[in-house]
Structures are given as C-alpha cells and as structure tokens.
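Reviewer 2 asked us to include a model.

Predict the structure of this chain.
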Amino acid sequence: MQITDKEDQILQTHAGLILSVVQCTQNPETRAQLDIALQRSAKNGWETLVAAVTKILNGSRETSLLNSLDDEDKIIVGAILKGIQDPSTLPKPDEQANASMAAPMLAKLISEASRGDHNAVIMLGGMADQMNAAGGDMASVGAVLKTMIDGERDVDKLCTRVGQQGESLITAILDELSKLDIH
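Predicted model (structure tokens):
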C-alpha cells in the first residue's frame, strides 16, 4: 500500500504522539506522562482518538478500533498498531511535516479561529499540544499559533524562537493567511 502525501503529512504531524504511544506499550513506566498529554488532547476535542489510544495502551490490538474513527484518526491509530507490530513502519521523529501541505490547513484554522470559530480554536489547541509533544521546531511553531490567532503577522516576531524549518512553515502560513485576507 502506497502512502499518499496527505497520509504522510498526518503521520509526520502526529509522529510525536504515535512514537510516544508505541514506546509506552513497550515501557509502561512512561504511561503517567502520556496520560497527561492525552487528557489535554481530549479536552481539546480529540476524545475519540484518545479513547482509541487508551484502548491500545490497555492492551487492545484489534483493527476494529479503526471503525469509529474519522480519516485522520484512522491514519494515526493505524500507524500506532502497525508500529507496535513492526517498529520499522514508524514515522521518523526528525522528519518535518511538509509545510506546503500543512500551511493552508493551519492558515484556514487560524483565520476561522480569529473570527471566533470555536471548533477551529479547539482543533488548533489539539494541534498545538501535539506539536509541543513532538518537540523541537514543531513545539516552537505550536507556541506561536495563539499569537497568530490574535492577529500577529510580523514574521520576525513570530520566528524569534524557531529554526529554519519552523521559519519556513510560519512563512508559508503567513502567505496563506494573506491569500485568505484578500478573499
């Protein structure tokens, strides 16, 4: 089965979560820390995904876990289940998500959240949590999402704590936001 660009984007965006869950199944001592992140994710609208992950952490390996999930959650849970069976299938934590695919989605959510769309705020909160869990540049990008919702568009201010890849993603998001502002 060939992985599409969209699936690859989802896998890289959620690599931190996927790797943490697989590692926790092999090292249960890390469960308490993962549970804290999962509780935050559930509060941010990811209840269905968190329920499936919790079942995996409690020992379930059934593919029927995928039945009640949306497309994105199916990709994440599927990657966790495959990763438990074959760690070589896990996403590489050092690979960054493709900015050309992430930027339009993030810009749309930022634009909607800045206009008061509660669902967009919840989705961005969940994404920020996952970006934070991924660490590195993704955590730094996740930290500036709220600033962007509040209207900040100065690339220099937004990129003070990010590396080259983070700056590339923030610049792409700002480009997409400017397109949305024109329409």
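Residues 5-89 form one domain. The chain is about 70% helix and 0% strand. We have added this to the supplementary material.
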